[in-house]
Amino acid sequence: MPVTESIIEKDRQVTRLTPDPELPGRLERTWRQHGGIWGWLTNTDHKAIGVRFMVTAFIFFLLGGILAALIRLQLMRPENSFLGPDAYNQIFTMHGSTMIFLFAVPMMFQGFGVYVVPLMCGARNIAFPRLNLLSYYLYLGGGLLMWIGLLTNTGPDVGWFAYVTLSGPGFSPGHRADIWAQMITFTEVSALGVAICLATTILRHRAPGMTLNRMPILLWEKLVISIMVIFAMPAVMVASSLLLLDRLVGTHFFNPAEGGDVLLYQHLFWFFGHPEVYIIFLPGASIISTLVPCFCRRRILGYTPIVVSVIATGFIGFGVWVHHMFATGLPQLSESFFTAASLMIVIPTGVQFFFWMGTIWHSRLQLRLPMLWVFGYFFVFLIGGLSGVMLASVPLDTQVHDTYFIVAHFHYVLIGGALFPMFAGLYFWFPKITGRMASETLGKWHFWLFFIGFNITFFTMHFLGLRGMPRRVYTYTPDMHWQTLSAIASSGVIFMTAGVIVFIVNVFRSRVAGEIAGNNPWGDASLEWATSSPPPAYNYLYPPTVNGRDALWDALPDQPVVVGLRDDIRETLVTHSLDTEPQHKDEDPGPSIWPLLASLTISATFVGSIFTPWAIPVGAPPVIITLIGWLWPRGHSPTPMRGRESWSH
Amino acid sequence: MIPEATFHFAGLLAQAVPLAPGSHNILHPGAPQGSHIEWLYWFIFWILLAVYVLMIVGFTRAGAKSRVLSREPLPISEYPEGDRRAKWAVGTAVAITVIILFVVLAISVATGKRVAGMTTSKNPVTISVTGHQWWWEVTYPNPQADQTVTTANEIHVPVGTPVVVLTNSADVIHSFWPPSITGKRDLLPGYSTAFWFQVDQPGVYRGQCAEFCGLQHAHMGFSIVAQSVSDFQAWQQQQLKPAAEPTDQEVARGRAVFLTHTCLMCHTIRGTDAGSRVGPDLTHLASRKMIAAETLPNTTGALAGWIVDPQRIKPGARMTPNPLAPDDLQALVSYLRSLQ
Amino acid sequence: MEPLREPIRPLTLDVSGLPSVAFGEHNTTWLANVFYMTIEGMMFALMFATYFYLRTRVQHWPPGHLPPAFTYGLANLIVLLLSVVPARLAQKRAPSGNLRAIRIGLAALSAFAIVAVVLRIFEFTVLNCRWSDDAYSSAIWVLIGLHSGHLATELIETLVLLVMSFTPKMEGTRLADVAINSDYWYFVVISGLLMDFLIYGTTRFL
Questions:
Q1: Closest CA to A73 of A60, A64, A82
Q2: Which of A437, B152, B230, C55 has its CA 20 to 30 A from that of B269?
Q3: Quick check: helix, strand or coil at residue A311?
Q4: Count of CB atoms within 10 A of residue C197's CB?
């Protein structure tokens, strides 16, 4: 028996809905955000913040892309004098750090997650919207810190991994490495904040009937990623904080002369660093698992194995970090263990690929624009995934590690695994976000330009690596015979740039001139398509209930809706984590300026601590005051609520 | 000041000794370990290529056979019979994946053992390599201090003999990587590790630092000169000698310039008062083919250009510019060129 | 044209009777607090791992220092363990809205926390090392510093709740916050226990 029926039958009134024409107006008033600049600063609507994450991350993507173009310009010719080593080191460090910390994770995890997850859960808003807003501001603060650093010639120049001792006090004087380490703190606190919001939303705000067994795969993946973030990000925060302490107050964690250890840093960094790869890959896979059944017009094949694979990826992802350290000369036993683990993680990824193929096999495939990008993903990501098998092998890894072969490999993995699904997802949810369809013609130009340019640039790099070209060199001599391949690699940038420009044009044109989309232009199954495009501030007039894995396809003609949430305060429904039985009602805290104030005091403390350790004691009281101001309750509940009888426990 | 033309940079590079093709290439190894790894590369490569082709054919075929031309969302459909077969196919594919991965693991571990396993049949040559920003200090340790050879960037090894490399770093992490001989090994400050390689064919093999180590990471090359055992021993005997005494006045003046300027604060020339170990040992500088860690050919012009303004050639290098008078410079270069 | 049909009106799931406050594991803030403690627990775990990793890199432990003197540390440990009693009292009485019991519990907890902070300051004076001496000293200082940060945060939070309990705002979800605050206090006590074991215990036999 479907769960919703059991909910209804259980001593609750069964009535048919009497539409209330006044309800939209009342909800609109209750859930409205403030207007103007004040409204922008205090906005706690997850849709606005999600879009803000996406737009900000995309701007950082463009900035990171410009740096990539500069790198390719420099390497186009041997002994090129376009960039000196100092500028080059800042640029390649900034390129990597921007793409990983300011683009890939904030776009794929935070951006899509914050926008899509509450809608897909059928919730009125994300859990802890103010924490969500704070997370955005801290992310923005970290990004600005690093880019202002670059523009003032204090851009980090020690690589996105900042290995000690090069990044330590002895070899990186000045504040470049400090800025990198503090940027890490900002962005990781942001990711952790969003992880808490998303995991809580998924576990507590799912629509009645959306039991764990019926949860869309995207929600499963976001839950797994959130938990991975919670376990992985502390490691990089410990690594970067200890590095900062070494640099600023003279501790010796990584100083070999005083009992410190350089490999300790690498262990801490890669304990985060490899799960990070899956934190970037899984959101992409979640988009693929969402799009494939929709455009194949059928249910996904192998729901349970795919979910199990995702969870397995989350686990195994924590057991492979040492394959980044094969060249350090570890004992052979641990080398074999990590080789085996690194190969094992291929299996859950393979399972997902096989089931996607099986889903497409017996289907009615509509090769619409988002699906074109999905096929691009198959072609591109597979190359990166397969060359990854080579890297799990210790002897092979000692050869190709830190060469352009690796550069090729991880661009196939990251651009294939994140950027292609990102464009697929952006085209897919574009109608939901803007209410209009994106142009398919421009989208196809975008796809082919980008696909061709990408392969020209990065496929070539495999050969450069095999010919012995190391990474992170600002130049090379002509007798190395790398110039022809380098020039070919550089030429692909033109196509990729053109593709991205077409995309931007498409977005700006389509959001005003695109075809009106309607609620559900793709005929998809998940709940976000049950509301208008773009959705109102309160997401759903009547929060939905769910009757199967594919919510809209399985809905009964008279599928129940949730009524009885108050419309004079921002009330949300909390359901049980496992069976989504309605449990109690929570109040959404609404717009607030305190997240901004808190982020300002926290940012001032973080940035100040780069220059003097006294910033911590001096900065702490303002931070505490803003946090107390944030949490101090304002206003009164209309009914007094002190007494056992008014709540459950 | 020296006229611009004497050290015209582009001109110097044009004279750079061209390396034999394949001396810096993973897929053209000149040593047994490199060959094992190359074999492993091709073994895995062909498996992966087959997998890739199958997968792409699968996706293309699935897409092509299922494609319908309709822009409107179609009603959803079910294929219970097909799905049952598809699940079997997926199960089989997963099983094949597991088998392939197991084969890769076994072959990889076996190759790893062959590459790393120590051969004890012959007396190995032991070399200690210490990474510096941005050059390689190379010593051939010997219990007797006066029998220890110290050189830089150019590593001579006898063919057919195992060479044990003891790694160390003086500052940041570097990585020792001669692609045509064997895989790389990080040089970690605070750690001393050992690995070995063997070269079977005489020749000059190039290598380069593979771990980002700061400003001049790009110009931190080295070369491995593999020569017959007798040639190697002759080279070793030559390197053990103190620096050649000046034979003419110009050279003697050059030595005086060396010993009265900043040179001796960083460099050693055995047989003179210069004994600092900050920079490379120059006792037999003239015997090396390249200078500045494989950046410039060891010619009179290049050497002069390097001495006068190393920052122009390797910006950020630890060596400071030396604005010497032209005749001082000429004498100094003559002296250094005499240090065979 | 098909004649317009009356659309089937959906059934309703009326949730108006559900409570608006939940205690224990059903509370959303409780869940967030669990995630938060997991994050902080990871930080502690990684610092503990760092400490043991550094141990493997030297011959003697502590390298060239006396182990930290344990007098204040032991006293503090006893204070922390005793403080569990008022924390549990406040937590148990929070759902009933018994303001008097909550105030007593929070006040006693604050008092214990203040004593713990004062003792902690003295602990810093008898560590027998300075953070800039060597990696061992750095680890000891960061371990105790990390925990002190949590102690201070928790003291402030408890004080805020104590003040709030004397205002009419102490109702509904705030009562649930009191209970969650106690959960977090247990976390601080347990992590303090482990930290004490590391810096006072392992430095004597490792």
A1: A82
A2: B230
A3: helix
A4: 12
Mean pLDDT within B210-231: 95
Q: Return the biggest CA–CA distance within chain B.
A: 98
User: Encoding tokens for residue B185?
Assistant: 């090994």
Instruction: Give the helix/strand (H/E) hosting A199.
Output: helix A176-204
Name the residue among B12, B15, B28 with its Cα closest to residue B206: B28
DSSP H helices, A472-576, are 483-513, 551-554
Cβ-count burial of C183 within 10 angstroms (0-12 exposed, 13-18 middle, 19+ buried)?
middle
In this prediction, residue A643 carries a pLDDT of 46
Out of A378-387, A586-595, B19-28, B272-281, give the one with best mean pLDDT: A378-387
E-strand spans in chain C? 12-14
Are B22 and B29 contacting, i.e. CB atoms less than 8 angstroms apart? no
- At B118, the pLDDT band (50, 70, 90 cuts) reads low
Q: Which residue has the tokens 């797994």?
A: A224
- Tokens 């702490």 belong to residue: A620
For the cut 80, the answer to whether the pLDDT of residue C188 exceeds it is: yes
From the CA of A15, how many Å to the nearest CA of chain C? 6
Tokens read off for A188: 């990781």
Closest partner CB to A365 (pick from B66, B133, B173): B66
C-beta atoms of C22 and A649 within 8 A: yes
Domains delineated in chain C = 38-58+67-205 (1.20.120.80)
Partner residue opposite C21 with nearest CB, options A17, A245, A647: A647
Res B6: pLDDT:
37
Q: What is the pLDDT of residue C42?
A: 96
3-state SS, residue A362: coil
Q: Count CA within 13 A, CB hemisphere, residue B39.
A: 14
Residues of chain A with pLDDT under 70: 1-14, 635-649
Nearest residue in C to A623, CA atom: C153
Average pLDDT over residues B23-49: 92
B122 contacts: CB under 8 Å, gap ≥ 6: B160, B161, B162
Q: Number of CB pairs < 8 Å for A and C? A: 229
Q: Which two tokens stand for residue C146?
A: 């990390």
Burial of C3 (0-12, 13-18, 19+ CB in 10 A): exposed
Rounded to an integer, the average pLDDT of B113-135 is 84
pTM of the predicted model over 0.90: yes
Q: Give the phi and the psi of residue B186 in degrees, each rounded to 5.
A: -70, 140
pLDDT of B119 reads 60
A294: its two tokens: 């929709």
Q: What is the ipTM of this complex?
A: 0.94
pLDDT grade, residue C20 (50/70/90)?
confident
Instruction: Examine the pLDDT at C156 and tell me if it is beyond 70.
Output: yes
Query: What pLDDT, in 10s, does the model give residues A343-379?
Result: 999 999 999 999 999 999 999 999 999 999 999 999 9
Of B234, B226, B189, which Cα lies nearest the Cα of B204? B226
Nearest Cα residue in chain A from C17: A564
Looking at beta carbons, which residues of chain A come within 8 Å of C139? 253
Q: How far is CA A416 from the centre of its chain?
A: 15
Measured in angstroms, the CA of B178 and the nearest CA of chain A are apart by 9
pLDDT at B320: 92
**Which chain C residues are closer than 8 Å to A587 by Cβ?**
20, 173
Which chains are adjacent to chain B, needing at least 3 Cβ pairs under 8 Å?
A
> Who among B24, B62, B189 is closest to A360 (CB)?
B62
Q: Does C136 touch chain A (CB under 8 A)?
A: yes
| Nearest C-alpha neighbor of A191 from the set A152, A127, A142 | A142
Which of A561, A566, A643 lies closest to C13 in CB terms? Answer: A561
Q: Which of A146, A53, A142, A145 is nearest to A91 (CA)?
A: A146
Judge whether A183 and A106 are in contact, CB under 8 Å: no
Q: Which of A484-488, B295-299, C18-22 has the lowest mean pLDDT?
A: C18-22
